[in-house]
Predict the 3D structure of the following.
Amino acid sequence: MLGLLGKKLGMTQLFDDAGERVSVTVIKAGPCVIARRKTIAADGYDAVAVGFEPATKEKKITKPIAGLYKKAGVKPHKFLKEFRPQKYDGLDVGKDITVALFKKGDFVDVSGMTKGRGFQGVIKRCGKSGGPAAHGSKFHRTTGSVGMRTWPGRVLPGTGMAGQMGNVKRTIKRLKVVNIDADKNLLFVEGAVPGARNGLVVVSSKTL
């Protein structure tokens, strides 16, 4: 699996070859630079580490990561991600990876952190119905009974309750690449992807 790091710019609409309107997410993918090449002999497994978005304040880069970039002869970047591609031909340290990695019609997986919603109740967080709105009801937006009988005598794991919502990693699989703008490093994928605008996303393909 090989991919790119990028930023979600937002959503728009395009028209496909059949003239149908398609909702797409615009991702500024790359360019990424290969900062390290791991091998079985030295590290126990094969992988490449790629950096994205040059760091504006190098003092914020930790010393181990700064040493990694220095050894590679590459300027420090804000984000670093490891991939395990099927083939390592041409994946040399210092080489840039761009949206040319993908082509129109490919299917990719996109990972990102969902929007954080804070502490939410069961109606918003779990989709529960709530109680009656009037006529003396004392339960409107709270959950109903979550307990059981004497057996099992406990609340089962996974029961929907109020709590922290969002701000978790999610992966949307097999999103179609509708269009590519190589000059601006833009990737147009069909459908929605996790996260807010300018949020970090990882675009990868298991066939690479």
